[in-house]
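ugh ok fine here u go
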Amino acid sequence: MSEERQSGGKTGRGRIRVALAGNPNSGKTTIFNALTGARQHVGNYPGVTVERKEGRFCHGDRTVDVVDLPGTYSLTAYSPEEVVARDVIIEESPDLVVHVIDASNLERNLYLATQLAELSVPLVLVFNMTDVAQARGYEIDIAHLSELLRVPIVQTVGHRREGMEELKQTILDVANDPAGAKPATVHYGADIERELAKIVKLLKSDGGCPSVPGLRWLATKLLENDEVVREELKKQLGDPARVFSQVDASRQHLEREIGDDPEVLIADHRYGYISGACQEAVRSTVESRHTISDRIDFVVTNRVLGLPIFLLMMYLVFKLTFTLAEAPMGWTEALFAWMSKTVAGFWPAGSESALQSMLVDGVIGGVGGVLVFLPVIVLLFLAIAILEDSGYMARAAFLMDRVMHKIGLHGKSFIPMLLGFGCTVPAIMATRTLENRRDRLTTMLVLPLISCGARLPIYALFIPAFFPKRAQAPLLWGIYLIGIVLAVLLAKLLRSTLFRGETAPFVMELPPYRMPTIRSTLTHMWERAWLFLRKAGTVIVAFSVLLWVLTSYPKAPEENVRGLDPQQAASTELSYSVAGRIGHGLEPVMENVGFDWKTTTAMIGAFAAKEIFVAQLGIVHAIGEVDEESLPLREVLRREYTPLQAFCIMLFCLISVPCMVTIATTWRESGSWKWPALQLVGLTVLAYVVTFAVYQIGMLL
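structure:
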């Protein structure tokens, strides 16, 4: 790039170079002629028979050179025109690209725009033939669509020269401030993005990698198996075999996991991005598309029916989860009961052994009390994976976008909330996709109110123990719904107080519906289930043993337990321990929300991980209730608590302070300790207030 070109955008004296792109029959030539008039010349690009047209025009004190790129539908190397078009943008480095679009056929024409966006050059969209679009019944919210795509949009009617002066001025404005026209790019989903990141990392580390507008674009082309890009890189990379080996491995991985070529998957996401933008900003009085996805979306994204369908879908998921998990839960419970009995049998009957108690009550009782609910968790994750892979979860986020706008957020904030059903930690990390810091912090602070997989063992323990089968699925559905409602209300409060400001626009991608592959669905299910199992094998074991120590020591003086029956002696021992003393100390405060000292004691260690609460309940009651029948935990709880207390325990666990890993992640992602501190104190106070109200009202009824 010459020195004059480099200074042109800043001083106003240099020439501006514009590349004019567009689909065939979009009116691009008409726009080119209207801009440049007679000041144009025609030739051929070197080495190909593709025609090259250049012209210029003057506006104000600036001269603008225009290169009319060959008409093309995409920038993938399927034809010489496509290769020439992208080579001009990459090698000749225009100051900006003007993309001419047939406004009456937006979804097809915008596909090229998604590819131009990946080249990281300033972009102006020209919606040509707006008269035809209006005649066909389209109403386009230009201002909103411009915000969503983050590019200026100019409406024109080329053959009548309407909009030409506005287009010329927009070109000058963008040339003077190119940062204001850097378009949004498509997010290709977790699987593809993970593979792109691997390729980008290798390209960065390769000394021979060419300087291009964006390594992400280059990685995408390689993943799409673009032969022209591959051949060029073979000549330039220092270690092409290393890069191509990763590319081939990534392509094979995606084909194996998702069941389709990466080219098709990437195209699906681009069209989904376009579809989401058009759903937001375009209204039509006539049917312009009649695909299967459109016909399904006509029902599931309907303004009236969409939300009830989503709620019904989640209810069916919970109903199916509980129904199918009942038998495996019984088998798992029986397995751990057998393990406890077998390990206890290694010691003589009636003997007292700290090691025996630690293994049976601490390790097996603690971990077993959590893993018994693994069937429920696996089935729930399986259902969510199917809904995600099919494309329905994207529709759920789109539906919630309307609700989220009313509280100052948008549907993009609901995506981390959906992830929160699995685990709050990756959900908080997913807020990185939100550009606005106020949106990020608001979403981050309310995410713990979404019931994560760690809370599911708590629900799976109390709901079957205290409520009849016909009420179990509605109750679980209701608990999840309470969390969502509280998150929405709290977000509204935060956006009205601490985080006032405008909501950043974005495009909600609506990918076409796909039949989930067995491999992909099972992989996504296993990834989440493995996180849970890894916790059970590390954090839960450690804290189960720690709680066993806290509930076992110090020992009560001999004279305090002499003459008592085994049950009374065990209860006295527990009361004398560190955990028992803490539980008793907090009991006067917690009894107002339905907790006794045992529940309070078990709640203390749940700060490490929510699911540990179940393990701790098992330990507390195993020590405090020594009885010959060795009743399962649910039976013990049923004898000691009421359904109202059970509901209040679940409610408190839903709302109260998140686990320590969540707090640490909030600190890391927010960059300050004040936000996790607010999260910790605020949610604990909210949990106490809400649970107090429910328990006291319930006692009066």
